[in-house]
Design a protein that fits this description.
The protein is of the alpha+beta class. The protein is built from 5 helices and 9 strands.
């Protein structure tokens, strides 16, 4: 087994980009592009986080596919054409969300991720081309499991996020401000109730004295 420092220059690549994709009834069909694709986090947000929070509408699923590709298909073991049902995409997202929570809770299970892929050394980097987008996103979860979070705001529309520091409980400044505002409202209401109780106690005491 190699020491940890030997893996500090490891890159993961997703399958090749998409040449085309379109909706056909309740199915998304398309064609692969060529080559591996190195994914860069967009504004510090992982692809796993984007997928977990992505909307279920058919147009949104098509948008995700055009931008990132299908979840479980691979251009290296199948024809360049691909297709999948919208319902299977939604079910995969549900399973991925459960995996997120499971890893966050420390209940990880052994998963065979590297069944098929491409490993090579280039420019002093060890580069692994993931067999599927699903494998790539799962590796993102397993890379920093201690940073996986679920936003504490009850009505948050994008609750799955990766924390920047250990104490984060809200996915964005908006949700953090919402929590702060609620806390202030509850505090002021508690103070108001205390004042009312004191006032009632003072009146009762005055009447008893008389």
């Amino acid at each position: 087994m190699l020491p940890d420092y030997r893996f500090t220059r490891l890159r993961f690549y997703t399958p090749g980009g998409i040449a085309s994709a379109s909706l056909k009834g309740e199915t998304v069909a398309g064609k692969w592009g060529n080559g591996w694709h190195r994914h860069y986090n967009e504004r510090g947000t992982t692809l796993a986080q984007r997928f977990a929070n992505w909307a279920w509408e058919r147009e949104r699923i098509l948008e995700f596919t055009k931008r990132y590709g299908p979840l479980a298909h691979s251009p290296y073991i199948q024809p360049l054409e691909f297709s999948f049902s919208l319902e299977s995409w939604r079910q995969n997202q549900w399973e991925f969300r459960k995996l997120w929570v499971s890893i966050q809770d420390g209940c990880t299970q052994s998963t065979q991720l590297l069944e098929i892929g491409q490993l090579e050394i280039r420019n002093n980097w060890l580069e692994f081309g993931c067999n599927s987008l699903w494998d790539f996103m799962t590796l993102e979860l397993l890379r920093t499991p201690e940073k996986l979070r679920f936003c504490k705001r009850t009505d948050c529309v994008h609750p799955y996020f990766t924390a920047q520091h250990g104490k984060e409980q809200y996915c964005s400044p908006d949700c953090a401000n919402w929590a702060q505002s609620n806390w202030k409202k509850e505090w002021h209401e508690a103070q108001r109730q205390k004042r009312r109780m004191k006032q009632k106690g003072g009146i009762s005491g005055t009447r008893q004295t008389r």
